[in-house]
TrEMBL record:
It comes from the Bacteria. It comes from Goodfellowiella coeruleoviolacea. This is Cytochrome P450. Keywords: Heme, Iron, Metal-binding, Monooxygenase, Oxidoreductase. Gene3D superfamilies: Cytochrome P450. Belongs to the cytochrome P450 family. One of its GO terms (molecular function) is monooxygenase activity. It holds the Pfam family p450. InterPro entries: Cyt_P450, Cyt_P450_B, Cyt_P450_CS, Cyt_P450_sf.
Length: 404
């Protein structure tokens, strides 16, 4: 097969990310590009030229191909951010990534995290009990969506209960975009995470449990499997990697359900729908992260019939794959009873999200409990009046006020 050279896109790259009309929906230009020129040259805000890939099949192919490695843009925030990223699992060094991932993967296996379900259910119940004790109105992000994944992740890592309070200030910090230059509050938050990791490693070197205990034992062997810098970065990374993303998905998922009353009603009457509902929440969710999933070609390779040269950067927005009408019928419709929902919300291939199984359990227990405990839940303000925060790694809800 002869590869197209895509001369026109090369001469006229598209400005990317595309402007969007609402934080709740992907940019319309993404669908237009997918329909007309699914692999196209684009220019990022910093002037970098990349390939934008927009179809499900092509995105999945890139994410699973050995011809591509992870490309992590250098952060513009705190000076320690790049070190944490380099020594965590966000690296283009395939051997290093495999070595580090193997150290923690067993703790996040489906078998292991399924044993955590009763504890996740208990945390959900505790949070909802506190939430409902305050009356018939609440702000769901601060009182439920944020503390749930933070609490669970702290327990998985093996961090004592008193330490969890510090994590409330870390929500704006992410390995994907740690801070904006000059944002003193975010800089301080990142430094606090760094200091916290140092303190907890020192304090629990002899008695740590959970993932932290395992990592400390590996580090103590001094056999080259885990350096001091990698140990520190792993603690920072595990704290941040699954916290804000899961919290944001809970908030966006509840919002999607409340904006589709017939779907909420279906869940009320058929609780068994919670599993497909969570998969649809994951497929449908739009985070605002359109430049985070990047790969670098390590060989010349054809993507969707377009020749991508060695060294070229490719962007694979997962929302484009998950809204591809060639893969999903009526792709822009939120349908909790959708069949064959093989979405790419957790990525695909070597860098498939390590915490996917845990996130699913948290979402399943959260949604099931909300529908069961608060069947009359509804938004306290119109959806278009909700406040969003575009400055972190995700375009996230600042608040989700609800009544029941």
């Amino acid at each position: 097969m002869s590869d197209r050279t895509a001369d026109t896109p090369l001469r006229h790259p598209l400005d990317y990310p595309f402007a969007q009309s609402s934080p709740m929906t992907p940019a319309a230009d993404l669908a237009r590009v997918r329909a007309t020129c699914p692999v196209v040259r684009a220019r990022l805000a910093d002037g970098q030229l990349v390939w934008l890939v927009t179809r499900y099949a092509d995105i999945r192919s890139v994410l699973s191909s050995p011809s591509f490695v992870l490309h992590v843009p250098r952060p513009t925030g705190p000076s320690g951010a790049q070190r944490s990223r380099d020594e965590f699992m966000l690296t283009d060094d395939v051997a290093r990534h495999s070595r580090l991932r193997r150290l923690v993967a067993p703790a996040f296996s489906l078998h292991r995290v399924e044993k955590l379900r009763p504890r996740v259910r208990a945390v959900v119940a505790e949070l909802l009990a506190a939430l409902t004790a305050g009356g018939r109105a609440a702000e769901l992000m601060e009182s439920f969506a944020l503390p749930l994944p933070l609490t669970v992740m702290c327990e998985v890592i093996g961090i004592p209960v008193p330490d969890r309070r510090r994590g409330r200030a870390w929500a704006a910090v992410s390995l994907g975009d740690t801070a904006e230059v000059g944002d003193d509050q975010a800089l301080a938050a990142f430094q606090d995470v760094e200091d916290y990791a140092t303190d907890v490693i020192a304090a629990h070197s002899g008695d740590a449990t959970g993932v932290l205990g395992h990592l400390l034992r590996v580090h103590a062997r001094r056999d080259g499997q885990l350096s001091t810098g990698e140990l520190h970065a792993m603690v920072v990374g595990l704290l941040l990697a699954g916290y804000l993303t899961t919290a944001s998905t809970i908030g966006r998922g509840v919002l999607a359900l409340l904006r589709a009353p017939e779907q909420w009603s279906a869940l009320r009457h058929t609780p068994a729908l919670v599993h497909p509902a969570v998969e649809e929440i994951l497929r449908y969710r739009f985070t605002g992260v359109e430049v985070d999933t990047q790969r670098r070609a390590v060989a010349d390779v054809s993507v969707g019939g377009v020749l991508v040269r060695r060294g070229d950067i490719v962007i694979t927005p997962l929302v484009a794959a998950n809204r591809d009408p060639q893969r999903f019928d009526d792709a822009d419709r939120f349908d909790i009873d959708r069949a064959d929902n093989a979405h790419l919300a957790f990525g695909f291939g070597t860098h498939h999200c390590l915490g996917a199984a845990l996130a699913r359990i948290e979402l399943q227990e959260a949604v099931a409990a909300l529908v069961r405990t608060l069947p009359g839940l509804r938004l306290a303000v119109p959806a278009d009046e909700l406040s969003w925060n575009p400055s972190g790694a995700e375009v996230e809800l600042r608040a989700l006020p609800v009544v029941w």
